[in-house]
Amino acid sequence: MKVILFRFEKEKINFLECEINSGELILGEKGKISLEGTSSSGEKYKKILDELFRFSDKYAANVFAYPPAVSNMRGKIDEVRFANEAMLNLFCNQNDIELLELAATTVRKKLAISSADFKNLLEKEKANLCEKYPITKSDKLLDGLCYLVLLDRASS
Question: 15, 18, 98, 148: which sits with the fewest CB atoms below 10 Å from its CB?
Answer without folding.
Answer: 98
